[in-house]
Amino acid sequence: MPNRIRGEIEAEIGGRRRTLVLTLGALAELEAALSEGDLVALADRFSKGRMSARDLTCIIGAGLRGAGESVTDEEVARMASPEGAAGYVRIAAELIAATFGSAQE
């Protein structure tokens, strides 16, 4: 059961339910992978609502690794979502909202 207070979410990807969380280490990994200098720049990038497939792969991969899975971004890119591309977007958006909060919170 995911703990939203810790920023955890649960999502179906790659044929099974998985927990994802953007830990401090996962956020540092995203800063480097997406060439953003700090958390403010990273949050600003996400708030614009425009993400590439590479962004989605990096976010979901970092979230899985933050939750303790040993998975590469290449493996994440091959994982299927039951909702297709919209599912990847939903997972990334939910993970970002759980990490940084949303306008509704």
Secondary structure elements and pairings:
Blueprint: E1 9-13, E2 16-20, H1 24-33, H2 39-47, H3 53-66, H4 73-78, H5 85-100
Antiparallel strand pairs: 1-2
Protein model, in words:
The structure is a single chain. The chain is mostly helical and 105 residues long. The protein has one domain (8-100). It is 52% helix and 10% strand. The chain contains 5 helices and 2 strands; from the N terminus they run ββααααα. It has helices at 24-33, 39-47, 53-66, 73-78, 85-100, and strands spanning 9-13, 16-20. A two-stranded antiparallel sheet has the order 1-2. Strand 1 and strand 2 form a beta hairpin. The two termini are 21 Å apart.
Task: Give a brief outline of the structure.
The chain is mainly α and about 100 residues long. The chain has helices spanning about 25-35, 40-45, 55-65, 75-80, 85-100; strands spanning about 10-15, 15-20.
